[in-house]
Design goal:
This protein is of the alpha+beta class. Helix content is 37%, strand content 16%. Strands 4-3-2-1-7-6-5 form a 7-stranded antiparallel β-sheet, with helices on both faces. The protein has a 7-stranded mixed β-sheet with strand order 18-19-20-21-28-22-27, sandwiched between helices.
Amino acid sequence: MHFNETEVEALANNPKTRFDKEGHLLIRERQSRQRQFFGDNYVTNLRWCKLRGNLLFYLKEADCNSPVGGLIVLENCSPIILRKEPDPDIGYEIVLNFQGCEPLRIGAKNAEEREDWIRRIENSSYKSLNSQIIALENQIAAASASADDALLLNAAPPLTSGPAMSKWLEDEQLPPLPPKQKSKDQQRQMPFNEDLSELPICETALSCDNLPLDLQNRAPNARIICSVLHPDQGYIWRPHARTEIIERSCSPQFLCTMRFRRTAGFTAQTRLRFTVYDVRERLSATSLPIGSATMTLGVFQDATRFRIPLRSTRGECGFLTLASWAPDCLGSGTCSNDAATSVVTAAAAPPRSITQVFEHGSTRDRAGHRRSHSLPPKLGAGSCIPLQCGLQRVCTNPRLRTYRLQSTLGADIRVQETLMESRLCFSVPQQLLSIWIQCEKELLQEISGMGELSGDWRLRQITLLEEHLRLLKDYSQAKQTIQQVMRDGDGMSFKRSTDKNDESLEFLPVNLHLQRMWVRNDTLQHTGVLDVVTVGAFTRHDGQGRGGLIKLLQESKAWKLGQGNACKVQAANDAVQAAKQLRKEIVELMSQLLNLAKCKSVKGMMPLCNAMIEKSKSLLNIWEPIIVEEAVNFIEQHRIIEEPDNVLMEPLSPFREITQQLNALDLKSPELEDFATPVVAPPDLWPHTSRNTSTSGFVLMRSNSWHPSPSPSTALDINTIDSLQQVVQCYSKHLRSLNPVQASSTCRPKKAEAGISKATYQSLPVDCQESEPQQQLLLIDLDEKPSIPTVAPLQPLTAADFLDTQIMTSSPSANYYRPTEEPEPLELTQLNIKASVMCLVSKIKFFCGRCDSPAIRLRHPKQHLKREGFATSPQHQKQQKPPDVVTTPQTQQLTLDLTPSQPQYPVPNKMVNKFTDGLDLSLTTDWASELRPSMRKLRHAMDRLLKTTRLMHSVQRLQQDMRSNSVHADIMYRRDVCFSQALTALVSALMVKFWATELNANYFHLLRDLGPLAYFEGLLSLHGGEADMWSDMCVAIEDLSSVNFTLIRAQLSSDTSVPMPRITGSRQSLEVLLPVPEHLYNIGLLSTTQPPLTFKITPVFFNIGIDAKATVAETLGQTRGQHRSNWDNFLRLNEYFIRYSKLPFQAPDTPSKLETAAVTPKSRQTLQTLLNAMKTHVCAKVSKNVKVLHLAEDVCRQLCGMRFTSCKSAKDRTGMAVTLEQGRVLKREFQLPLEHVPHVVNTMRSEGTRMDNVEKNIGKRKYAFNVLQVRALPDIYRPPLGTYGKAET
């Protein structure tokens, strides 16, 4: 350890320094090397020693006035006596044992002196002093009436020892207690709740003057700590607030202000003590009190300037000035009018500065003295704070810090920092996990629906089942853990950085917070808000070292190029998603047509018909018949079919027992069942298995009615999945242990004779147990309400249940074939779709008055659509033809237009339409009943097409290499983890934008025509594990561009209700429904008569490493990927600007608005200049070129984009970047002088909300930087001295 020689010598030689003990000691010390050559290595010298605390000074000579010879730090030191008799060389010996060092031998003149020195040394250590302080704390806690008072002793100002402190305690009567080391559990503090809409009693700015100099005639490093004394809390001084440290100033003016709120227990009679400290050493926060002043809050809360002397044991030691004002509320459009009017405003105006003098009385129309002769007097101006009640709906646990700055013209700049947690941190990942759980269930249903296959294909089936069960278990376990954290949490709504390696919480973003800075320049009457979402890197921390997503995807793509079936699997998956989406859209169109038919409203029917026809075209061209025929032939060749005679006698095979156990996972979707399902309990996958039922007769259950049983997505038993997974793994190992001959011999052969009938689901009984009566199938006619036996209650049915998209998408019978069910030929399915559409459109045209319109013709095109990954030769198409398929002539083209085509043969004078022949418009009273049969047939046909599509997907997945499935599952899981974190951060930012920001019509015009910009700023290095994090972030941010966002009207039951977004869709097509406030509809920015506003975002990601690892990465040439990514994102940003500049925005009402305004030539030129400069810096090869990030921030703010800043844990480097951006905004937009920016930024880093964020994560107010890491940072990103040190990151 290195000491300041001048300071140490001054302390030892100062005659005013009071030492605990002085006297002669014999010290045995090592000789110099020259003397070691001639004699003993050690020599004993008589020295004059001085003990001060745990510092033992020894002088060069025995004279007490000789210079200082050395210093011994008595920490971790144990003095012992080896023998009581005096030693001839060293006298009465004392051995000082140090941890990790060799012992030191010293000696006293007599036994009494030795005992006194030992006692003094033992009591001087920090451990001994700490034990004394703890004993004092226990005494005070025992005397207190409440047990909670003991917890308040953990956060008091530091204490010094000596007679001066004893006199200090006598004057104050009650001691300020030192901070106690917090335990690991106490570091996780309870959430700090504060009402953002509450007006404080007053806000106070502080300054000092005439502070005394130290012994070396140096000005102090001043800091003020405010403590409060509550009588109902045991008369204990508790720290309330503190200022920053002003170095070397006898008249410091502090930037940090203090707020006193009624909800915190402050009244006019509350006693406050302001203590001024001289911070001697910032690393260890060693400080000495200069003086203090005690008063009540009512003394200065109404005084615009209150000056009081500071007192200490030496008398007066300077003056303290308090400048207080009562803020007014400032309506920002972010809350309702009733909330704004419910806040009581005050009339006290703030002073221009803390040295300004106002006369008594009203201050709004009075001017104070000038700061300088060149400046005009201060005009009366009301101090206002933002109303942010809308922010508390989407965020929670606020932390506030306030500052008062001065502009270049001497105007006041008031700054309020707010740090809040997002309420959506846990809910968004849960919804995504529910979607992915449902996806794995669908894939399990697909594999089991193929039936049992023979040979090696059975092993492939089991392998796929094992893979999906593993993913299902992982997703379910993650969701269950998140729910448990929400129930058992401590009120926090974020994931701490110390938990980032917790695998059970990996779907949650790390340290997600909203950093908001509200600024107002009184002279310019200019108000602005800067919102930055700070979040840890979107990555899977538990999977580091395996390569990031970019590397994994590139390796997977290269491997797929060598596989012939890899592209087919992707094409099949795309076909499944397209069929699901098109079916849903067509059903929604039919539902709208049915509603119009009930009202007999022809207006709008024809456009809906045109849209339905266009979507039907796409649906018919999803698959080519030749591809479907190959898959069906594969199923017929390898599926094991039971003979009807052996169905009841043979036991189930292991595969079928496993698929039967899948029912325990409740593979049915947690929503509703399909109209086509019988109203009995749904049959098992294998119909001949026994069913344990305790009732007889009718067992009626409406499958398309939601029952009170818990949803499988929320009540899924992890133990059930785990046990089933173990069974599958055992069976898989058994199959792998068999050689091909044995494996083929154990499979029952397929009966291929023509005369043997095959057992299907339709030909087998529902229940095969003879001991129980057979259940009766009751099919429901949806046109009329059914007559059902009263054995079991049944929910009422509606006639249009088959048009419910939830019922349709979650029905197993509408999405999958049964294992024993034969697939329908594709051409027959397409023919049924065409016939249903023609019939439906003809009837609608008839209702619209086009009675003479012939039926439209729907036929296949001549040329089959060529899909990527499927190569079909023309010769193969000519030679093979599916058997028993209804075909249509191939000489005519597909025509889906409503206008009839010219016939090529003679026709009679009157057009005849067989679909409408016999209908009389005047006699048709119920249009809906005429349309419903065609709609129901179309639904059935689309269901069968989706079933066939799923079957094709299963076949293609089964035929590819099994290693591909495992690799794909690992990549997909990692991608889901990263995407969950990214989408949570994005949805949180969007909700803040709509609920806590003042918006105008231009912003919604931007949403509708272009979509908002989302700028993600990264500070990751491309060396070590952070290179994988950067790779994961690139892919996760890119995936956000495919998400659709839709604005819906919020339905809130109370003022405290939380607007909760809803996520729908699948992994390939997600839609997020964002609830927006009611007032956006009331003022006309949104309309309920128009379609919901839907948009996508444009994400850009710029990353520049700034730490020591970034230096290593640049030296080793590992930043090429970063340069390429930054350039690609710059091109995207430039393209966004070009499209943005073409939007016809309206002119703003006032030039001070920061929201989207008209694109004037001046603003366009400014943006173009910024982009040109950014292009230059992106192309330049400069080490740690952070100018790229700064220019991107400026462009994003000009384009009204959303801001995100990330590093590994969003704590240390992110804190440096956010505070720097806040300083840049203050300088550029609010006229903060350039020379004041470093001090303001350092104040925000040391006393602002970013330090609160560090404390919330690790329990210490220390950034996790060491000295070498700080030196590697750019100068503008370095934390102030004393704010960093050893801490868990």
